[in-house]
Amino acid sequence: MIDLHSHILPGLDDGSPNIAESLEMARLAVADGTTHMACTPHVVPGMYENGTENIVRAVHSLEQALRRADIPLALYVGADVHIAPDLPNQLTLGKVPTLNRSRYFLFEPPHHVLPPRLEELAMRLIEAGFVPILTHPERLTWIKANYDVVERLNRLGCLIQLTADSVVGAFGRTAHYYSEKLLGEGRVDIIASDTHGAKRRRPGLSQAFDVAAKRCGEDEAYNMVVRRPSDILANRPLEPVGKSTFAKMPSPDKVGRFGGIGRLLKGVSS
């Protein structure tokens, strides 16, 4: 499986505090069936001043540590990008990383306050050639009163990413309810772990895969944790599934539950 949202890089944000924790997170992810992981530390002006340069360095350093520890987890550069007025320019200049240098990036609104002109910012990003992936909308406290904003962002072209723990109910009743609602409406493009540690918000997608498979069918659950993430890392064009919920989805090759990932990722470089 491919995990597009993690805070596994040590010492860059509120995720892993050190290399030992990062290695344990990697071991847990691999044991659960994750083979590829995007490293996506927070980029929050004034709080987490991360950017492409230091994130790339941190990924390379962790890759070396994984090789020394013989942990078979492929890493990719990315970021969990907080909204900012100059974000289109920051992405265009390459100061903030997209996922594996693709058109796709993790787009994180504030958790507790719906910011003004959020849809306008999303439109500017899309017009600049980027595809925002709206991170964990089910966990945003403002979703209760503003679910229509999520619907409109999806129609504009934003992909939807759920947190695995929300899908299985570990983030509480509200997050679970909105995960179920988004899955039921056919709006979910990606499930990712958003892991922050080996004990707190552990990595792993298999339980969420099982829940999504029961809710949406195994083919569509596979799309959420393998096929679409691989397309994103390879910068292949994707339309949000929510824009056409009745469209026929491609079926995975008949190669087993998570087989064929090497073929899917052909041409993808870390």
Automatic annotation (TrEMBL):
<dbReference type="Pfam" id="PF19567">
    <property type="entry name" value="CpsB_CapC"/>
</dbReference>
<dbReference type="InterPro" id="IPR016195">
    <property type="entry name" value="Pol/histidinol_Pase-like"/>
</dbReference>
<keyword id="KW-0378">Hydrolase</keyword>
<comment type="similarity">
    <text>Belongs to the metallo-dependent hydrolases superfamily. CpsB/CapC family.</text>
</comment>
<dbReference type="InterPro" id="IPR016667">
    <property type="entry name" value="Caps_polysacc_synth_CpsB/CapC"/>
</dbReference>
<protein>
    <recommendedName>
        <fullName>protein-tyrosine-phosphatase</fullName>
        <ecNumber>3.1.3.48</ecNumber>
    </recommendedName>
</protein>
